[in-house]
Specification:
Layout lengths: L16 H4 L1 H9 L19 H5 L24 H9 L10 H12 L9 H8 L6 H8 L9 H12 L2 H12 L9 H14 L7 H11 L2 H11 L8 H47 L2
């Protein structure tokens, strides 16, 4: 009689796999909630009296401007240098131009040379001395330790005292420029250049800049410039136009100064003659 082999019997998988795997079963039953026990910690406030806690803090005096470490062995800002910074301070008034102040500050600090001391570090140290109290207060409102380079400082300074609305107004003044009734060519050109210098980021090309000025002049000055150019001024190259305007305005200005000087001289002589006449009359009556 043939006996059935166990190897030929079908293998039946258990319906519950967890019961056949003791490791998984033990792992599932071994999970326990983890409780973090906090140990009491004494804080600084717990160790201080109320009077000590209510006192004003004596730390946290960091400023917005971060001055880099100076590696030079002997370095000291002289009092005379600081005094120079305070002679022409920027107040931040409406008519004050921050671009002019930056130009002046760059000109002064460009002459300061210290061995192993970068120039931008000197600028960062000196700039606050060049500001009056109101302007200095505005700059100190910047986030602590937020200014690390000279470029950062200039950007924040210009944005604070030269807002976009001011740029728009000055650009409109340049575009709508007109020579005044009693204004000479020199005076008109000088006023026009002041507007451009007050707003160096105006974005106008040299072509637009010169064309606007030429068309803003009265017919007499336009004819004078055309005569100097030999043709219509706008038919010359841009650089030639600029040179002609500069030279023509200087000639007119020197003539005006001569006339004014002559008039003042005549007035002075007239006054002297009058004084002599009065003195002679007084002597004759004695």
């Amino acid at each position: 009689m043939r006996t059935r082999s166990f190897s030929n019997l079908p293998v039946v998988s258990p319906s519950n796999p967890s019961t056949s795997n003791p490791k998984r079963r033990n792992r599932r039953h071994s999970k326990q909630p983890f409780i973090l026990e906090e140990s009491p910690v004494d804080t600084m406030a717990d160790q201080c009296t109320m009077a000590e806690l209510l006192r004003a803090p004596t730390e946290g005096y960091a400023e917005a401007i971060v001055v880099p470490s100076i590696l030079a062995d002997q370095f000291e800002l002289k009092h005379s240098l600081i005094n120079i910074m305070t002679t022409d301070q920027f107040f931040g008034f409406e008519m004050d131009n921050p671009h002019d102040h930056i130009r002046w500050f760059n000109k002064i600090t460009s002459t300061i040379k210290y061995k192993d001391v970068p120039n931008f570090a000197i600028k960062l140290m000196l700039f606050l001395f060049s500001l009056a109290r109101t302007a200095r207060r505005c700059l100190k409102k910047e986030p602590l330790r937020s200014i690390h380079t000279w470029e950062d400082l200039v950007s924040k300074f210009i944005n604070e005292f030269f807002p976009p609305s001011r740029t728009t107004n000055l650009c409109n003044e340049i575009s709508n420029f007109q020579q005044r009734f009693d204004e000479s060519l020199y005076e008109a050109w000088d006023r026009y250049k002041d507007l451009r210098r007050a707003c160096p980021h105006h974005g106008f090309t040299e072509l637009h800049y010169l064309d606007t000025f030429y068309n803003a002049l009265n017919p007499a000055n336009q004819d004078s410039l055309n005569a100097t150019a030999g043709v219509n001024l706008l038919e010359r190259r841009t650089q030639d136009v600029l040179t002609i305007i500069e030279n023509k305005s200087k000639v007119r200005n020197s003539r005006n100064k001569s006339v004014v000087s002559h008039v003042k001289s005549c007035d002075a002589n007239s006054n002297s003659s009058s004084e002599i006449t009065k003195l002679t009359h007084a002597v004759n009556q004695q």
